[in-house]
Amino acid sequence: GKEATIERMKKDLQGFSRAKLEKLKEVVEYVESYIGKAATIERMKNNLQGFSDAKLKDLKEIVEYVESYIGKEATIERMKKDLQGFSDAKLKELKEVVEYVESYIGKEATIERMKKDLEGFSKARLKELKEVVEYVESYIGKEATIEKIKKDLLGFSNLKLRQLQKWEQEWGVKVLKERLETYNYQYLLELYGNEQLMSSYGA
Hints:
Layout: H1 2-11, H2 13-18, H3 21-35, H4 37-46, H5 49-52, H6 56-70, H7 72-81, H8 83-88, H9 91-105, H10 107-116, H11 118-122, H12 126-140, H13 142-158, H14 161-171, H15 173-182, H16 185-192, H17 195-201
């Protein structure tokens, strides 16, 4: 509808500028066939980039892989909430990340995490994720790190080793350890990852 399109353009002009009409139509038709028309409309109202960024062939591969891992119903529910997580993913990288996370927290916990947060997997890069996990583990221990990943993989995926090292220099070992033990890491990034926020909130 026109009103919803205007509202979407106000919030997400980038999604429109990236879109190629024929490719967009293909993606929309595929998503609609998978999650239904009403859910597709709601998804488009919330985030056009999930559609405009997707390549149909790649999207289908990701959907098939995710479905094989968490089941079709859970995949449908995930897509209704987070199409961007599907369109951002690259199959080879996603498989590598899933295998690593599974080896660290176990398959059952990995399945549960994927049902809630595909973006945490699709945004991760294996080398960087390993660096962050190893660094955090050196501070809070393996068992606590496992529990953190079970709840906040996206935070691990968005964190970078250099950010952690910067926090260590600015806050000191004791404060960093306390914060790594206490907080969700996505929250820490939102609060302290920006230079201006860093100076506003202090250590």
